[in-house]
């Protein structure tokens, strides 16, 4: 059984307009095969007639294509910056600045809105006429977090480096390793990613 070729070969005697017959054979297990010979006995056979492919003529010469290429690369006009030149020279790791409902902000390396339940009295709700049980009521709040990138991220990393250096100076022996790791991480980003 000859396997089906993508383009049936044409002999010197076969005209370009000749048709080819394709046999679709399905065996007892449902496996399907396409071939250019009739199916074996016991298999379901379907046929399709397709036009034979005409031979593709080889290109006469590569010279015309070479001549079509521009002699010089395109010139960039004065005052027009390329897209590569407009990209920033640094790509610092992103930081998120998260701001609480009362205006305090913090930096985080991941999106962290810190959902929590804040007592209504802290949120400024007047509970003077409410029953005593209202003192335990709270409302879920989240910080507003925005992602910083580029120059804003570098400025934030420098801010974080200063804060971690201060934390390391005040750290006790049991927290020094963590504080040092955070300081080193911030210093690596500032010195490695934020320097052009």
Plain-language structure description:
The chain is α+β, with helices and mostly antiparallel strands. Among the domains are: 33 residues, no CATH class; 97 residues, no CATH class. The chain contains 4 helices and 8 strands. Strands 2-1-3 form a 3-stranded antiparallel β-sheet, with no helix packed on it. The longest helix has 21 residues. The chain is elongated and about 90 Å long. It starts with 18 loop residues before the first strand and ends with a helix. The N terminus is likely disordered.
Return the average pLDDT rounded to an integer. 77
Q: How large a portion of the residues is in β-strands, by DSSP E?
A: 15-25%
Helical content class? 10-25%
H/I helix tally: 4
Unreliable parts: 1-16, 80-89
Strand order of the largest sheet: 2-1-3
Return the string of H and E elements: EEEHHEEEEEHH
| Spatial extent as radius of gyration | 37 Å
Overall shape: elongated
Instruction: Give the helix/strand class.
Output: alpha+beta
Span of the ends, CA to CA: 66 Å
Major sheet summary line:
3 strands, antiparallel
| Count of distinct strands | 8
Indicate the topology:
Blueprint: E1 19-26, E2 32-35, E3 44-51, H1 63-68, H2 83-86, E4 95-99, E5 105-108, E6 116-119, E7 138-141, E8 144-148, H3 150-170, H4 176-192
